[in-house]
Amino acid sequence: MARKTSKQSPDLGAKHDAGKPRWSLLRFGMARALAGIVDVLTFGAFKYADHSWMTVPDGVDRYFSAMERHMNEIALHGPHARDAESGLLHIDHVNTNGMFLAELLRNIPEPR
């Protein structure tokens, strides 16, 4: 008979997820930040179209510039400054542009 090496009770189930990404850290630890990103994405989808950010020409440069503009507004007017057009917090626009950049930059092939 095989010897049990687990410290768990034999009546408990097992889940081998050690070392795997813990998505709950994002969902539960940053729920308000994620909600802000969703608000900006929803505003953009109404203004343009769903996922249209993916095909903007020169997207990397343009989203870096947009992120800098929103960061400048925070620097000038404080952390609760809101975008005049959307009414949403500038920090939520910064975070959304950062997500756009993270996606776009990951699609650039690595040099060989």
Automatic annotation (TrEMBL):
Residues 13-107 form the dATP/dGTP diphosphohydrolase N-terminal domain. It holds the Pfam family dGTP_diPhyd_N. InterPro entries: dATP/dGTP_diPOhydrolase_N. It comes from the Bacteria. This is dATP/dGTP diphosphohydrolase N-terminal domain-containing protein. It comes from Bordetella genomosp. 9. The lineage of its organism: Bacteria, Pseudomonadati, Pseudomonadota, Betaproteobacteria, Burkholderiales.
